[in-house]
Write a sequence for this structure.
DNA sequence: AATGTCTTCAACCGCCACCGA
DNA sequence: GTCGGTGGCGGTTGAAGACAT
């Protein structure tokens, strides 16, 4: 009762930061009362962890970070905190949001209208000096293969490049 | 310029696990 | 063993800005 909700003001941020810097955050539930904030402990904790912590890394996710999220999500599922723990400076909330707004679409598009495809390293490129090779496409659906063949550079070329970066460069097939 | 639609992301909610009494 | 308090997690929401018409 009497608790504030919604976006945090700059003043509230300042109060929370200075309180944690001088007293720490041993007890989140007691913290707002001690600091003089009209927020619940959970809200203070979330604000600190997701936004105010000094080691937060903000800004766009790098290609490497995106690759890591995809690979980790593939093996761990929606374990956002576990995934975030492997990305220094990133929070579970940030990773989760990025997944839902960017990566989920890419994964979805990779299975266009129910078509599935896989990437394979071309045998002939096995001798590639740096171990990298351009991806070839093995379509699981003959109709899609036919369509792609008919249209030359197709809509999924960007997707192919993306998955190439994710899987092929990391040595997966 | 006005209005509608879509996208993004900070914040909230409910649930669960853990811990000490 | 159980109970209450607390922290942490994942799913979801909604405000604000971006973009399209």
């Amino acid at each position: 009762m009497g608790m504030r909700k919604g976006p945090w003001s700059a003043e509230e941020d300042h109060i929370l930061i200075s309180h944690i810097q001088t007293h720490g955050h041993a007890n989140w539930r007691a913290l707002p009362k001690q600091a003089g904030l009209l927020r619940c402990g959970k809200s203070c904790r979330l604000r600190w962890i997701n936004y105010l912590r000094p080691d937060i890394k903000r800004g766009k996710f790098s290609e490497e970070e995106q690759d890591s999220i995809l690979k980790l999500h593939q093996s761990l599922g929606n374990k956002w905190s576990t995934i975030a723990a492997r990305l220094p400076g990133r929070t579970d909330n940030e990773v989760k949001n990025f997944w839902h707004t960017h990566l989920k679409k890419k994964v979805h598009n990779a299975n266009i209208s129910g078509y599935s495809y896989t990437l394979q390293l071309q045998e002939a490129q096995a001798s590639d000096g740096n171990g990298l090779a351009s991806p070839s496409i093995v379509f699981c659906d003959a109709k899609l293969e036919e369509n792609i063949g008919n249209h030359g550079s197709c809509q999924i070329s960007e997707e192919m490049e993306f998955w190439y970066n994710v899987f092929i460069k990391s040595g997966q097939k």
Notes: Confidence is low (pLDDT under 50) at residues 112-157 of chain A.
